[in-house]
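We emphasize that the prediction below concerns an isolated chain of 477 residues; any contacts that depend on oligomerization or on bound cofactors are therefore not represented. The input was used exactly as deposited, without trimming of termini.
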Amino acid sequence: MTLHIYDTLSRQKKPLEPQHPDKVNMYVCGPTVYGYIHIGNARPAIVFDVVRRYLETTGYEVNYVMNFTDVDDKLINKAKEMQLPVPEVASHFIDAYYADTDALGVKRATMNPRVTEHMDQIIEFIGELVEKGFAYESGGDVYFHTKKFPEYGKLSHQNLDELQFGIRIEVDARKQDPQDFVLWKAAKPGEIAWPSPWGEGRPGWHIECSAMAKQYLGDTLDIHGGGQDLQFPHHECELAQSECVTGKPLASIWMHNGYININNEKMSKSLNNGVLVKDLRTAYNPAAIRYFMLSTHYRNPLNFTDEAMQQSVNSQERLANAYGNVKHALQSAGAGTVDEARAQGGEPEAALEAKMAEILEAFDAKMQDDFNTADAITAMFEWASEANVYIQKKGEHVAVSDLLLLHDTFEAMNDVLGLVMEQAEELLDEEIDQLIQERTDARKAKNWARADEIRDLLTAKGIVLEDTPQGVRWKRA
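Result of the prediction step, given as a token string:
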């Protein structure tokens, strides 16, 4: 079988044909780190984690780069609100991002470059665009001239005339055309800024990814990913400026995951209906959150409701219980650890071996078809049914070799989807009290990163904190 992936640009499934036979270069646009991430941010984190995991299990080395946007208007405003320097605010929320995504079982990217650490590359990239006539300076700002790139709009499948009337464009006399977008923004008094040939300033949003992707992955990426909300304008602009500099396609395959709605309404600030991951994983097992995200094909919209989350809790528990039954049966059989059991040798029952091979083949077929996790999960439930029935039927006479086969089959699928996670060891009451006191002291000292780190540790251990007039109380979830 050959892995086929839906490419947003060509609007068709394409076989993955990496530039290097055993290596895949993948760039995914990360968050702007001015606040805690919501479930809309969590979806691409989990989706592309699964993409990366599956590619690795099929033998590829994956060079996975996901950036952090650590300077922009939102961060500057947040820094003013918190009365802290912009880099300190960014670091605080980067730590919070890791706490949330680590809890959701997301493997950290190969590299997480920050915009502020790549100003030289960004300025050089803009300079090339200016030199080649694709960009111009105006009043200390630098703009990309969209009409100089005739293919502008090809990723979102619109042309310039449609874009002119189909989107809201801010009137700016400094632009030669309304659709032109900013590459470098002149600094306002008191703002964080860097020197450049066009004066003190900072980069526009779109240019950062072009510069960092080129720096770490070359002119053409094997896969470029992100949420559907980034397709236009962010990825459209990124594609245009990159291809003007290199003369090559920016990506062989463009992947975009669908939106998340909240109770059938679009998640938006105006509706104030966003759901933060840090709150969600206090209310639910993080593995159930991951299950929810993967229970629908990544390109389809996903509707968050309490009912859908409870269904995910029940479904995830069914898989975890079946896997737990197999591990318990191994222990009851006196096999010791899995490695010790494997050392005993022995051949599994032929019929069971054939059934497990069939399940793995079905799982793999669904993943090969544009990472269809929704249908791949069906194979995991078939495994759960087979495992439960087999153990019940065999009772005390089940062979260690059969249990190992059941165990390894589940692990092969779970290594990709990550729907069952290792349980953290439970904290003692006195350890919790000590951590809460340390968190209180950290907050008094305005060491927000440490305070959040402790809170996230307690959350991961199933400890719910309640702020009361008498102080902080805690309970086990």
